[in-house]
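2024-03-11 09:14:02 DEBUG pipeline.ingest accepted 1 chain
2024-03-11 09:14:02 DEBUG pipeline.ingest length=252
2024-03-11 09:14:03 DEBUG pipeline.predict start
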Amino acid sequence: MNKNFSLEICVGSIESCFEAEKGGADRVELCDNLFEGGTTPSISTIIYAKEHLTLDTMVMIRPRGGDFLYSDVEFELMKKDVEYCKKIGVKGVVFGLLMSDGKVDKQRVKELVEIAKPLDVCFHRAIDMSNDYLVAGRDIVDCGCNRILTSGQANKAIEGVDNIFSLQHLLGNKIEIMAGSGVNEDNVAEIYEKTKINAFHLSAKRTIKGNMIFHQKNVSMGGVDSVSEYDIIQTDCNRVKKVRDKLTRLFL
């Protein structure tokens, strides 16, 4: 595989991990609760991925959905999760913390980076919720992170390409900038052309009908009206391969 670019797949299950692997991804970001933007997966999921995948595994460290201002108890949980990931030897961890005024919480980020060493550390899309995008980028570099995942302070990366380009231009080779949110086989070439970054993050998902024959139509367990309890959201290896093939041609 061409190594002038990196392709990371955001996965919410072990089955999705295997699909990402079959499609030719470089690594996975292992999460739970993708509809909340991703939270920390279970210990058993992390262990299984570590034992059965050939791909590098980045683990989301996020104790809940919602904002990125965490209580003292939540921060203690994050520290313990990072310690555990380091103990079992995953490739890296993914987190992001902000203060109430929208600045990067540099003190806590630095603390987690120190705990994680020598693991890779990615600061996730919390940067897109910061009060000053470029200042936040410099702060993240100061904290010692290896990578920033960003949509350029837009809902989708394709809409935030100008900001992503500005961040890449500002930070240069001090840190890897990775585009994420809505990246797919139809827009990855345009994102590359407009940002000149070489790292891409996507879910490449599809909806699979579950095997339940009986459907209880009067009850919703998940609380998300647009998502059926009888559908399974899973990474599609064919979509991963399409993105990989497009990137391979771009980076020839």
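2024-03-11 09:14:41 DEBUG pipeline.report Helices lie at 14-23, 43-52, 72-88, 106-116, 133-143, 161-171, 188-195, 237-250.
2024-03-11 09:14:41 DEBUG pipeline.predict end
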